[in-house]
Amino acid sequence: MSEHIQPATDQRDAGPPPSEEHERTPGVSHESEAFDFRLIIWIGVGLAAVCLLIQIALWWLLGGIEKRHAVRPGTVSELAKEDAQRPLGQRVDSIPGPHLEGMERKSDLSKIAEARMKAEAKMKRYGWTDPQKGIIHIPVEKAMEEVLRAKEFGPGNNKKKAAGGKR
Q: What are the extents of the domains in the chain?
Protein backbone atom coordinates (compact mmCIF):
# COMPACT_ATOMS: atom_id res chain seq x y z
CA MET A 1 0.00 0.00 0.00
CA SER A 2 1.02 3.58 -0.61
CA GLU A 3 1.94 5.65 2.38
CA HIS A 4 -0.84 8.19 1.58
CA ILE A 5 -3.66 5.67 1.39
CA GLN A 6 -4.69 4.38 4.76
CA PRO A 7 -6.91 1.37 5.29
CA ALA A 8 -10.41 2.20 6.47
CA THR A 9 -10.98 1.62 10.15
CA ASP A 10 -14.23 0.35 11.51
CA GLN A 11 -16.13 3.53 12.42
CA ARG A 12 -18.61 1.77 14.71
CA ASP A 13 -16.04 0.86 17.29
CA ALA A 14 -13.87 3.96 17.04
CA GLY A 15 -16.45 6.49 18.30
CA PRO A 16 -16.54 10.05 16.93
CA PRO A 17 -14.02 10.76 14.16
CA PRO A 18 -10.97 12.78 15.17
CA SER A 19 -10.91 16.35 13.90
CA GLU A 20 -7.16 16.77 14.09
CA GLU A 21 -4.92 16.57 11.05
CA HIS A 22 -3.55 13.29 9.79
CA GLU A 23 0.05 12.53 10.64
CA ARG A 24 1.28 11.46 7.21
CA THR A 25 -0.59 13.97 4.98
CA PRO A 26 -0.46 17.51 6.36
CA GLY A 27 -3.46 19.73 5.58
CA VAL A 28 -5.89 16.81 5.41
CA SER A 29 -8.41 16.27 8.17
CA HIS A 30 -11.45 14.07 8.57
CA GLU A 31 -14.88 15.47 7.76
CA SER A 32 -17.33 15.52 10.59
CA GLU A 33 -20.47 13.54 9.81
CA ALA A 34 -22.55 15.43 12.34
CA PHE A 35 -25.75 16.84 10.81
CA ASP A 36 -26.95 20.12 12.30
CA PHE A 37 -30.69 19.52 12.12
CA ARG A 38 -31.53 22.67 14.15
CA LEU A 39 -29.77 24.90 11.62
CA ILE A 40 -31.76 23.40 8.76
CA ILE A 41 -35.04 23.85 10.67
CA TRP A 42 -34.22 27.49 11.53
CA ILE A 43 -33.34 28.27 7.89
CA GLY A 44 -36.63 26.70 6.75
CA VAL A 45 -38.63 28.65 9.32
CA GLY A 46 -36.85 31.86 8.32
CA LEU A 47 -37.60 31.32 4.63
CA ALA A 48 -41.25 30.58 5.41
CA ALA A 49 -41.46 33.77 7.50
CA VAL A 50 -39.93 35.85 4.70
CA CYS A 51 -42.42 34.38 2.18
CA LEU A 52 -45.30 35.13 4.54
CA LEU A 53 -44.13 38.72 5.03
CA ILE A 54 -43.88 39.21 1.25
CA GLN A 55 -47.41 37.85 0.78
CA ILE A 56 -48.79 40.16 3.49
CA ALA A 57 -47.02 43.18 1.95
CA LEU A 58 -48.41 42.38 -1.51
CA TRP A 59 -51.91 41.88 -0.11
CA TRP A 60 -51.70 45.26 1.64
CA LEU A 61 -50.32 47.08 -1.44
CA LEU A 62 -52.81 45.60 -3.90
CA GLY A 63 -55.68 46.24 -1.48
CA GLY A 64 -54.72 49.91 -1.34
CA ILE A 65 -54.54 50.16 -5.13
CA GLU A 66 -57.94 48.47 -5.44
CA LYS A 67 -59.52 50.91 -2.97
CA ARG A 68 -57.97 53.89 -4.74
CA HIS A 69 -59.33 52.84 -8.16
CA ALA A 70 -62.68 51.44 -7.06
CA VAL A 71 -65.75 52.77 -8.88
CA ARG A 72 -68.10 54.55 -6.53
CA PRO A 73 -71.71 53.34 -6.53
CA GLY A 74 -73.93 55.36 -8.83
CA THR A 75 -71.09 56.40 -11.17
CA VAL A 76 -71.45 53.49 -13.60
CA SER A 77 -73.12 54.45 -16.87
CA GLU A 78 -76.34 52.83 -18.00
CA LEU A 79 -74.61 51.38 -21.07
CA ALA A 80 -72.05 49.64 -18.87
CA LYS A 81 -74.81 48.19 -16.70
CA GLU A 82 -76.66 46.85 -19.76
CA ASP A 83 -73.43 45.42 -21.17
CA ALA A 84 -72.60 43.70 -17.88
CA GLN A 85 -75.97 41.91 -17.94
CA ARG A 86 -75.30 40.30 -21.34
CA PRO A 87 -73.61 36.86 -21.45
CA LEU A 88 -69.85 36.89 -21.82
CA GLY A 89 -69.95 35.17 -25.22
CA GLN A 90 -72.11 37.96 -26.68
CA ARG A 91 -69.87 40.65 -25.22
CA VAL A 92 -66.71 39.05 -26.64
CA ASP A 93 -68.30 38.66 -30.09
CA SER A 94 -69.20 42.34 -30.18
CA ILE A 95 -65.56 43.44 -29.76
CA PRO A 96 -64.29 44.56 -33.18
CA GLY A 97 -61.11 43.01 -34.55
CA PRO A 98 -58.01 45.07 -35.32
CA HIS A 99 -58.06 47.08 -38.54
CA LEU A 100 -55.02 46.12 -40.55
CA GLU A 101 -54.10 48.68 -43.15
CA GLY A 102 -54.37 47.38 -46.69
CA MET A 103 -56.06 44.13 -45.71
CA GLU A 104 -59.71 43.28 -45.87
CA ARG A 105 -61.30 41.71 -42.83
CA LYS A 106 -62.96 38.98 -44.89
CA SER A 107 -60.87 38.35 -47.99
CA ASP A 108 -62.86 37.60 -51.10
CA LEU A 109 -61.35 35.27 -53.69
CA SER A 110 -62.60 37.49 -56.49
CA LYS A 111 -60.72 40.47 -55.05
CA ILE A 112 -57.51 38.43 -54.87
CA ALA A 113 -57.95 37.23 -58.46
CA GLU A 114 -58.65 40.79 -59.61
CA ALA A 115 -55.48 42.11 -57.94
CA ARG A 116 -53.44 39.32 -59.54
CA MET A 117 -54.84 40.11 -63.00
CA LYS A 118 -53.94 43.81 -62.56
CA ALA A 119 -50.38 42.89 -61.54
CA GLU A 120 -49.96 40.54 -64.53
CA ALA A 121 -51.33 43.18 -66.91
CA LYS A 122 -48.87 45.73 -65.53
CA MET A 123 -45.98 43.28 -66.09
CA LYS A 124 -46.90 42.97 -69.80
CA ARG A 125 -47.04 46.68 -70.74
CA TYR A 126 -45.01 49.89 -70.61
CA GLY A 127 -45.87 52.55 -68.04
CA TRP A 128 -44.69 55.14 -65.55
CA THR A 129 -43.59 54.04 -62.09
CA ASP A 130 -42.61 57.53 -60.90
CA PRO A 131 -43.04 60.33 -63.50
CA GLN A 132 -41.33 62.97 -61.28
CA LYS A 133 -38.15 60.90 -61.08
CA GLY A 134 -38.40 59.66 -64.66
CA ILE A 135 -38.74 55.98 -63.71
CA ILE A 136 -40.69 53.72 -66.06
CA HIS A 137 -41.49 50.04 -66.11
CA ILE A 138 -41.24 47.79 -69.12
CA PRO A 139 -42.56 44.28 -69.84
CA VAL A 140 -40.54 41.49 -68.23
CA GLU A 141 -39.73 39.81 -71.58
CA LYS A 142 -38.33 43.06 -72.98
CA ALA A 143 -36.26 43.64 -69.83
CA MET A 144 -34.71 40.17 -70.13
CA GLU A 145 -33.86 40.79 -73.80
CA GLU A 146 -32.20 44.12 -72.90
CA VAL A 147 -30.12 42.44 -70.23
CA LEU A 148 -28.96 39.74 -72.66
CA ARG A 149 -28.02 42.39 -75.25
CA ALA A 150 -25.86 44.19 -72.71
CA LYS A 151 -22.10 44.34 -73.14
CA GLU A 152 -21.40 41.78 -70.38
CA PHE A 153 -23.51 39.13 -72.16
CA GLY A 154 -22.38 39.90 -75.73
CA PRO A 155 -21.16 37.22 -78.20
CA GLY A 156 -17.45 37.92 -77.56
CA ASN A 157 -17.71 37.35 -73.82
CA ASN A 158 -18.16 33.55 -73.78
CA LYS A 159 -14.67 32.94 -72.38
CA LYS A 160 -14.50 31.98 -68.77
CA LYS A 161 -12.82 34.51 -66.57
CA ALA A 162 -9.74 33.45 -64.61
CA ALA A 163 -9.70 33.51 -60.84
CA GLY A 164 -9.77 37.03 -59.47
CA GLY A 165 -11.83 38.39 -62.39
CA LYS A 166 -8.88 38.78 -64.84
CA ARG A 167 -8.72 37.19 -68.29
A: 35-70, 111-153
